[in-house]
Predict the 3D structure of the following.
Amino acid sequence: MDRLPSKVSHASSIMRLNFRLVAKVTCALPLFSFIFCVIIALLIHFKSSTATHCKVANYLPSISAAIGGLTPERYIWRTGIALHTAPRYMVTLMYYNFHRNRSATPSVWYQLLYKLTCLLNIVEVSSLVVLTYVSSTENPDIHEVSFISFVVCSEVYMFFTCVLLKWSAYKPMSEQEQQSLRWKSVMFVANVSSFLTSVYFYFRHNWYCEPGVYTMFALCEYIVVVTNIAFHYTAVLDFPTFSVTVGSATVSKNS
């Protein structure tokens, strides 16, 4: 009797990219989209993007004014967010495995915390996508809920990530771990501080309508965006030797 042909499966690699390059591109997409939107708003739509309800002097557009309703700004921002979303979800999965493998015998609280942290990151990215594509003029309720969930999940995620790194770090901490935790902590503190300061300037502007106060609000918003992006870029310190491999579908052969 002839031997039946057996199937041999393998996957071929199409592309291999250094993770640092992937992180640079992923973070550069929203960063430069944001910068271009602000510059274009200042050059082309200065009057409409810096107008305030009480008509006082303002010199910078808020984030919503720069990326929300004006064209081509909103298309630039939406494109940047769309292109950077898939790698962000990929990094979330990487961090899930990273935290899971950090401890040989993780406690129940540690397992719960790293799973919750990864869930917060997924909600953060998803909320960013929703508030980007659903403007406040189209559906104010969905936009508002998405914005609040983005801010809350972002701040809590950054804090929990710092806690996890400190909790699961090797003793003593390596230089790489110290650098990662230090930069994450700095970006987290700067992000929270600038967000709280922006809230102060926002209410002060609405209460007193002082010239230049809304400009300070917008500037604080910019810092929130930049520090958020910088925090996520610190992933290169946690995955210094990683590469991203793009492979084809599994190929089957008869032998």
